[in-house]
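Quick start: what a row looks like.
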Amino acid sequence: MERLQKAIAHAGVASRRKAEEMIKEGKVTVNGEVVKELGVKVGSQDKVEVNGIPLQREAPVYFLLYKPRGVISSAEDDKGRTTVVDYFENVQERIYPVGRLDYDTSGLLLLTNDGEFANVLTHPKYEVDKVYIAKVKGIPTRQQIKQLERGVMLEDGKTAPAKAKLVSLDKKKQTAIVELIIHEGRNRQVRRMLDSIGHPVLKLRRERYGFLTLHGLNAGESRELTAHEVKQLRAHAQSGSGR
């Protein structure tokens, strides 16, 4: 199930904002009934019509992008900044990112037009490991690394247990490289976790998502997921073994 305006946008009829306007104007029906409320959810069995024309759902597509720094993880940006979707100008389907990476964070990001697939991967009850490599200010102690693993208290609650290790350090520059593996998806979580132990992030990259890696890609490059990868990713997430 997904919100009506999202279903219209995912079918390539209009942007989500435009779809919301069409709903308010009474141009959309669900199973023959005019719907003017934005909270309505529809599933694959519901018959949706826009201006009397049945909604044709797009064939699902799945992409893996090596997101560069300085790019918005969104389908559109009202400030005119570059978004991750701008890297897919030749893709006809209306795709959007699965979850987010911060503006200043680079790395692996999935994009799709499959709402159910996106929901499975981002739902809190499903656990998909996300591996981050962070360059931090200062050199964390063994105790601080253990702290990250046990969970740290943030303003929105304590983080779940994670895996963390000190990859390398530079005593002269007083910086270190830390690998952090988490399965939660809170806003700016890795940055906030490292801030909480007194080692702010200087540079951050997501290296892995479940079993998917950036292998063979440079920043700004992408590839389509194979049917097997999509099936495997969905199965791993739902079984709680998304590692």
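That is the whole record. The first strand starts at residue 2 and ends at 3. The chain has a mean pLDDT of 91.
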